[in-house]
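Quick look at the format.
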Amino acid sequence: MPDPHAQASDPSGPTTAAATGPGTQGRRRRPAQLIFEPQAGEPEPERFFDLESIVDPAELLSRSTELALAFRAAAERATDFQAIAAAQLADPRRFDALTPAEIADRADWTPDYAARMVDYGRTLQKQRSAEGGLH
């Protein structure tokens, strides 16, 4: 008859008490080792808003035009936010204000473009404060 107080060896960690029945602390178990790698599924074909599945050219033109206009509006809005951020970073009241050249380096712009974005951002900030919006 096995000794209920015997120690069981577990290669995954320190020795723990052997299990003797319900309610007693058993030894830790290691996860089962995989003997094969799961099959990788077929790569899904790229989809662009399911435009490739539209067969009617009139519908395709309509839907792709809607998307192009939406992306254009999103790009313009993102550019406005870039300009506001550039203006905030260049604010001389900040102890860590950046020069247009430093902003250009961070945004991958030319220094001239960064200076114009700072000016544009200041204009947007003035418009927002005049309208009672956020700075």
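Next, a different chain entirely:
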Amino acid sequence: MSSSSSMNKYWIPHLDIHKKVITQELQFYLGPEATVRSFTRDGEDGFLITTPGACLTDEQIDDICVKSKEMWEKQAAARAAGAATRVLKRPLHQPVVISKAGASESTRRRRESRRSNETRSRRDERRRN
């Protein structure tokens, strides 16, 4: 393995690059001694690439960006599918409907109206007697 003094260091911005993709692809492009890690340069997030040779070419970076986009799309699709079939972690805390606006409100009003009419009918009947 080469000493760190004979290694070249390059920084590239993180824009459009998924960390997992660049980590998986870097040694394929630059050899087994190449490493990558997150690194902030002048306040901008990116990746510090250490390699014995030259850095990634534009074509290699484009390929990493395309693979990164595919990775994000797969992750988004997995999240969307998981949200639809997600089982509650605490099924005992599943919400129970007490009342719903709309149909139950009108049912409650009808019930209250019926009670009110029954009360009036009883009162009227008592007055007559």
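The chain has three helices and three strands.

See the schema section for token definitions.
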